[in-house]
Amino acid sequence: MSQGKARVISTELLSNSEAEWKRLVKTTYIGQDGVTRTWEHAERTTRPKGSDFDGVSVIAILEKDTGREILLEKQYRPPLDKICIELPAGLVDKGETAEQAAVRELKEETGYVAQALTTSPIMFNDPGFCNTNFKVVEVSVDMSLPENQNLKPELEENEFIEVFHVKLADLWDECVKWEAQGYALDARLASFAKGIQIAKKYGL
Amino acid sequence: MSQGKARVISTELLSNSEAEWKRLVKTTYIGQDGVTRTWEHAERTTRPKGSDFDGVSVIAILEKDTGREILLEKQYRPPLDKICIELPAGLVDKGETAEQAAVRELKEETGYVAQALTTSPIMFNDPGFCNTNFKVVEVSVDMSLPENQNLKPELEENEFIEVFHVKLADLWDECVKWEAQGYALDARLASFAKGIQIAKKYGL
């Protein structure tokens, strides 16, 4: 298997009829002034019927002797043609709760076995652009479990994920460094990091 | 002018040829295993030529006698058919810096006159779904300026934005309450709030 740098070869416009995973939608709506207008947005085609959310992000904080560290991933993302730094995450399967999706995705992507602790409200990624959303699930990881000492991820054949962790308290400074090194930052991770930075700045 | 609740009337699939503001793209790329694959994603059509970012989010913290408060907006979002709670934000105009966009958008949407303090790295909203991104600009607001005592927003004719502020330290609890009240939460705001909550939880 050759190991090279992932990269884009070409791009083309994609019609809704050919698209399998995404679609473009035009909404006709009445604004609060009573005027009828239209709005364009993008959607996933994968949200399970009856579900009000697409996926989950996972906050897994590892309690190490040296302090708390947060579990992160590096993954090549074709839309950006960059390696992106993100929280573990994934789309929810039909019939699955957010907590089940979080525990499953964490095991598949990182090999860590965890227990769900808290689940956030639904968060919408870019409300003027798309309707895509997710819930943030905080999980606890028992480092003494054999599975968590000998990690066995279960990645898809087209998934290449590098798992790593950094000190939670340093997360914002690390984000700034990562961008300087040429990585792309996932906004859900970077906004979370910014919240930690602001909390520290103002002694909240 | 009738004042009613904004709501969706109908939705339809939108082809790229008809779409003005968004488009669907198919990327052919070589993965790090050397295998050629494709990936679908959505993009804005509005990113200024030569710009590497689409827009800005604004963190405006007001220093009140009762403590620090963060400036927020409620805005009906047709893709969600909900009123969404968000940071002030907007797309960047051609030739404008992130700081200029932030100060301009804040004045237009809220009436507040501010000065840019810090600018974040680029943050990507949903890297497997789209290439859309933004920078977070922290601004300072001098409450003693006459313009900031007698606010005059400059909204577009199809923009209806309610401006308000909440205690920065309470932001996460407020997010949880807002979802219970039926509002949608913007992920950039809610992830930021989660960071504050986690920093407080772990005494960072």
From TrEMBL, chains A, B:
<dbReference type="InterPro" id="IPR015797">
    <property type="entry name" value="NUDIX_hydrolase-like_dom_sf"/>
</dbReference>
<comment type="similarity">
    <text>Belongs to the Nudix hydrolase family.</text>
</comment>
<dbReference type="GO" id="GO:0019693">
    <property type="term" value="P:ribose phosphate metabolic process"/>
</dbReference>
<keyword id="KW-0378">Hydrolase</keyword>
<dbReference type="GO" id="GO:0005634">
    <property type="term" value="C:nucleus"/>
</dbReference>
<dbReference type="GO" id="GO:0047631">
    <property type="term" value="F:ADP-ribose diphosphatase activity"/>
</dbReference>
<dbReference type="GO" id="GO:0005829">
    <property type="term" value="C:cytosol"/>
</dbReference>
<feature type="domain" description="Nudix hydrolase">
    <location>
        <begin position="51"/>
        <end position="188"/>
    </location>
</feature>
<dbReference type="InterPro" id="IPR000086">
    <property type="entry name" value="NUDIX_hydrolase_dom"/>
</dbReference>
<protein>
    <submittedName>
        <fullName>NUDIX hydrolase domain-like protein</fullName>
    </submittedName>
</protein>
<dbReference type="InterPro" id="IPR020084">
    <property type="entry name" value="NUDIX_hydrolase_CS"/>
</dbReference>
<dbReference type="GO" id="GO:0006753">
    <property type="term" value="P:nucleoside phosphate metabolic process"/>
</dbReference>
<dbReference type="InterPro" id="IPR020476">
    <property type="entry name" value="Nudix_hydrolase"/>
</dbReference>
<dbReference type="Pfam" id="PF00293">
    <property type="entry name" value="NUDIX"/>
</dbReference>
